[in-house]
Amino acid sequence: TYFITFDDIQGLGASTPIYADGYKVGTVDGLEYDYKENGPIKVKVDIIKDLRIPQGSKAEIVKDLMGNLQVNLLLANNPRERVEPGGIIPGAVNGGMMDKAANLVPVVEKMLPKLDSILTSVNALLADPALAASLHNVETITSNLTVSTRELNTLMAGLNKQVPGMIGKANGVLDNTNRLTANLASLDVQGTLNKVNQTLESAHQFTEKLNSNQGSLGLLMNDTKLYDNLDVNHGSMPTPWLST
């Protein structure tokens, strides 16, 4: 048995649970109040025997949002000294979530005018005809996008059907090109070029002989005296078909 002193017990009563590090270690057994001295309220608690309470530990009353009370033992880090059974543990009240909520009330009160102004602005925005027109435009754009997507899907489906045929035609063209290349590769291009060169060389030699004084044709074409004699003889030859 131990005693915990509180200035205010917040409605604490018998059988209120006592916890240490989240584990239930006892219950409230009774209350003692000195009406003459008007001092702190002494709460008698039953704690399990195996729990060692270090000297310097404290206790606090905690109330949750539902109004339920419990006592939490805040064990001190003191491995050498402990509170002996029958000893007194100082206690206090921890408002918990309720106190935190109460502290938020002034902040919320300051925010209310701003929230009201924001709501007014939002209502004005929602009532603006331009917003309705913008939403209508968005709906129209979405509808157009849906139609465009449908048409694109149709186009892609058509292309998917045509692509195999196009690939087949391309393969045919490539096959023809390969055959043409093979045929060109099989031709004796070098032999043909050699024959052409020989023909050109022969023509060149023939031309040189015509331009020189060698050979009958060369002499005939380059000897002007011989040409003149032939021309005179040709003129003196009788022409029976012209005789009268």
From TrEMBL:
Task: List each copy of the Mce/MlaD domain by range.
Answer: 1-63
The record's listing under InterPro entries reads: Mce/MlaD, MlaD_Phospholipid_Transporter
Question: What Pfam families does this protein's entry cite?
Answer: MlaD
Q: What is this protein called?
A: Mce related protein
Q: Which organism is it from?
A: human gut metagenome
